[in-house]
Amino acid sequence: MLSSGLSRVPGLQHGFTLRTWGDFAGTEPGLRLLARTGARALRLLRQVHGIAVIGADDEAVVPEGDAWAGRPAPGVLLGVCTADCLPVLLCHPPSRTLGLAHAGWRGAVAGIAEATLKAMRVPAEEIVAALGPSIGPCCYEVGADVARGAAGSRRVQEKGGGKFWFDLPGFVGDRLAEAGVAPGNVERLGLCTGCRTDLFYSYRREGRTGRLCAFMGWQDR
Fold first, then answer.
1. Cα 190 from chain centroid?
2. Is 41 exposed, middle or buried (0-12, 13-18, 19+ CB in 10 A)?
3. Which domain holds residue 9?
4. Domain containing residue 62: CATH number
5. Dihedrals φ, ψ of 169, to 5°?
6. Is residue 173 part of a domain?
7. How far apart are CA 22 and CA 44, in angstroms?
8. Is 198 helix (H, G, I), strand (E, B) or coil?
9. pLDDT tens per residue across span 75-117
10. How many CB atoms lie within 10 A of CB 204?
11. Cα separation of 220 and 95, whole Å?
12. How confident is the model at residue 151 (pLDDT cuts 50, 70, 90)?
């Protein structure tokens, strides 16, 4: 289990699982996570690589969307599953408002991070954030479709032969800064899932593979 500087926020539980925890497409890893954290529920999404943000109090059993925003009840963990895509954790400590997004290139380019921030309805400059493990620019070779979507970004570098290298965490970090989040408040873990298949699942590297879980919530009182 990995954590970030968000651990300094009183009462906040969060983390990024490793492949040793198992595939969160199944139920057993989630049960182990609840046992370890003492939480009473883990809520996941049916992710579709879009920009729909689901309220933390949404009553659907498994809502369709790619981000959460709101104030979950104590003891309820919000989660997203990844296997190269970027987990984006946002926290507004004064109001206990959380945002958690699954950002693949489609969602990142379409604005999933900004949509999550907007749905939180808090001052962006008071947000603290963590960008978890994802495929890095060292391994993320993309085509012209991605380059067009991210046109003008310094995070796209031409490789040749119609291929490009894409820095997904850097791109999302830039988008958050443009939306008003202080760059010094955004922690980038900098671990590449493509390089470290000993630690993480990587769809790009492995093809058919499992899913990691990034989660956050407030301790039950």
1. 13
2. middle
3. 5-134+181-218
4. 3.60.140.10
5. -60, -40
6. no
7. 16
8. coil
9. 999 999 999 999 999 999 999 999 999 999 999 999 999 999 9
10. 15
11. 16
12. confident
* Tokens standing for residue 14: 């969060």
Going 31 to 50 to 108 to 157, the CA torsion angle's sign is positive
Which structure tokens are listed for 120? Answer: 């939180």
Work out the burial of residue 161: count CB atoms within 10 Å of its CB; fewer than 13 is exposed, 13-18 middle, 19 or more buried: exposed
DSSP symbol at 197: T
pLDDT at position 33 over 90: yes
Residue whose token pair is 């922690």: 187
- Structural contact between residues 215 and 33, judged by C-beta atoms closer than 8 angstroms: yes
Q: Do 110 and 130 form a contact (C-beta atoms < 8 A)?
A: no
Instruction: Give the integer Cα–Cα distance in Å for 169 and 88.
Output: 9
* Structure tokens belonging to residue 112: 């999933």
| Per-residue model confidence (pLDDT) at position 217 | 97
Whether 155 is covered by a domain: the verdict is no
Number of structural domains the chain divides into = 1
* Residue 18 identity (one-letter amino acid): L
Confidence tier at 189 by pLDDT (50, 70, 90): very high
Q: Which residue carries 């969060």 as its tokens?
A: 14
38 C-beta neighbours (distance < 10 Å), count:
10
The predicted model scores a pTM of: 0.95
The pLDDT assigned to 130 comes to: 98
Which pLDDT score, from 0 to 100, does residue 101 have?
98
Q: Alpha-carbon Rg of the chain, whole angstroms?
A: 16
* Cα torsion angle, 188, 194, 196, 199, sign: positive
